[in-house]
Amino acid sequence: MNKFFKRSPYLLFLLVIPLLGTIYQLLNNRPSKAIEMTTTFDQAIPFLPIFIIPYILWYAYIFCYLIYFCFKDTTVYLKSLLLIVVSELICFVIYFFFQTHVPRPTPAGDGFLLELVRWIYANDRPYNCFPSIHVLTTFTIMLASLHIKNKHLITTLCIHFTGTLIIISTLFVKQHVIFDMIGSMFLVTFIYGITFDLLSIWGNAKSESLYQKSNHSS
């Protein structure tokens, strides 16, 4: 219980996510000479409304696993948030100067899944697609989870299986194209190396310095 109250204040940092979402919405209402990056591969991918479910689950996926990280390993949680913030800010700069557009189908017919697709299409304009924020944040969680020790096997499987479904769902519901996915994963991998590896090196160096000072004082 003491651990819960000690780490709970760190959850306030999650407020940065809706703030980033607000910036995204401002940029998403600015279509200007948007470029289409659709390939033959994308055209061959069928539109499958069933994938709107993992696509929408993304919202819960990000928040739930960041909260899990916070109480499991606060350092990983903070590094994950930093990685998301830095990566999204880079995306916003790209969106401002290099805006892309994804052509979307017109969902025909009735049914719950198609209604969900129409709702997403109505609330998320088909601009600012490269790199994909959906893929970027999901891949961040998947990579960061590798640093969480003593995870249950089911937790590991859920993180990676659900994350994979979310990533490919962006293609099957025609919200993104393959270059959006690849660009996001490349960006996250690059920033991930800086955020986790360099900060870990800095943390180890700081700990070693404090250890040496302690020995010197004694």
Describe the protein:
- The protein is mainly α.
- Helices cover 70% and strands 2% of the residues.
- It contains 9 helices and 2 strands.
- The chain has helices at 2-7, 16-28, 40-44, 52-72, 74-97, 112-123, 133-144, 153-172, 178-217, and strands at 35-36, 100-101.
- It has a two-stranded parallel sheet with strand order 1-2.
- The longest helix has 40 residues, at 178-217.
- The protein starts with a helix and ends with a helix.
- Mean pLDDT is 88; it is low at 205-215.
What structural category characterises the helix and strand content?
A: mainly alpha
Fraction of residues in H or I helices: over 70%
Terminal CA distance: 35 Å
Order of helices and strands: HHEHHHEHHHH
Poorly predicted tracts of residues: 205-215
Describe the main β-sheet briefly: 2 strands, parallel
- What radius of gyration results from the CA coordinates? 20 Å
The total of beta strands comes to 2
Instruction: Calculate the mean pLDDT score and round it.
Output: 88
The main sheet orders its strands as 1-2
Beta-strand content estimate: under 5%
Shape: globular
Helix count equals 9
Summarize the structure.
The protein has 218 residues and is mostly helical.
What would the keywords be for this entry?
9 helices; two-stranded parallel sheet; 70% helix; 218 residues
